[in-house]
Amino acid sequence: MTSNGDDDAHSPGTPLDEALAWFARLQDSEASAAERKAFHSWRAAKPENAEVYARVEKLWNSPALSEALAKFPAAIPPAATRNRRRTPGRWAAAASVLLLASWMLAASGLIDRWRADYTTVAGEQRRIALADGSIVILNTDSALALDFNDDRRGVRLLAGEAYFEVRPDSARPFVVNTDNATVRVVGTQFAVRAGEKTSVAVDSGIVACGNEKGAGVQLTAGQRVSISKETVTSPETIDSGSTFAWLKGRLIFKDRPLADVLDELDRYHPGLIVIANAKLGNTRVTGNYKLDDTAAVVRALADIAGARVTTVSPYLTVVR
Question: pTM of the full predicted structure?
Answer without folding.
Answer: 0.69
